Amino acid sequence: MSINLPLPLLGEMAIFVKVVETGSFSEAARQLGSSPSAVSRSISRLEKALATRLLQRTTRKLRLSESGEEVFKRCQDMVSAARSVMEISGQYNHEAEGLLRVSVPKAVGRFVVHPHIPEFLRRYPKVDVQLILEDRHVDLIDDNVDLSIRITDSPPPGLIGRQLLPIEHLICATPQYLAEHGTPTHPHDLLNHSCIYLGETPSDARWKFKKGTKAVTVGVRGRYAANHTGVRLDAVLQHVGIGSLPYFTARHALEQGLIVQVLPDWTFLASYHGGAWLLHSPTRYLPPKLRVFIDYLVECLEKEPTLASPSPRSSS
Question: Which domains are delineated in the chain?
Answer without folding.
Answer: 9-92 (1.10.10.10), 99-164+274-307 (3.40.190.10), 169-269 (3.40.190.290)
